[in-house]
Give the backbone structure.
Amino acid sequence: MKPCIGVLISGSGTNLAALIDAFSGDDAKAAIGVVISNRADAYGLQRAVAAGIPAVHISNAKKSRVDFDRELIATLQAHGVEWVALAGFMRILSPVFLEAFTGRVINIHPSLLPSFPGLDAQEQAFKAGVKITGATVHFVDAGLDTGRIIAQGAVPRFEADTIEALRARILAMEHELFPMVMAAAVSGRLSVEAGCVAIDGAAQALAWQPDKP
Ligand code: GRF
């Protein structure tokens, strides 16, 4: 049996689409067992259905954080999930959730953490006038984008950039980085060396390619 990934989303799900591409087919290192959204109208749910993956809406409205997280846990476990990928999931997870999947919850964030955590990271970076920004994949802890960094991808911010152009460049990097890290995670290729997460024993950073958006 392949390792089973559950993906949590709240929106469009372009990162979900990249994960579906990477984890479909017989040669894939893992399978996506379920996609869960806290928003009924998240387009990512439709992407999951189109790919033949169970798609579940679990509302967080009028529920305590822990009750919501318990529903998430039950649904993920019912689908045999071992690894959880947060792909644009706009909720902070409680310790109850993190204990259910200790060391197996991974998030993608659109900045080079620890710079620009939280909402609108791309706009924060744009407004700060940074020359290089990017995306970070990290383990999730109880804080806001504070978990241990696994890998990063850097992209330039060009002088003529609009915020939309910069967002698109970061997103293209996210789509490379996230499947790469999830494949390494489920295959047991992550380790911690001198306080840093390594993939296959080495620090991983992707560099922007000029032929990308
Ligand atoms: C991405 O920028 C991701 O880094 C952030 O939320 C966004 C989700 O985008 N956590 P999408 O739904 O995958 O297109």
Summary: Residues 1-102 form a domain with the Rossmann fold fold (CATH 3.40.50.170). The radius of gyration is 17 Å. The CA atoms of residues 29 and 183 lie 6 Å apart. The chain has two domains: 1-102, 109-213.
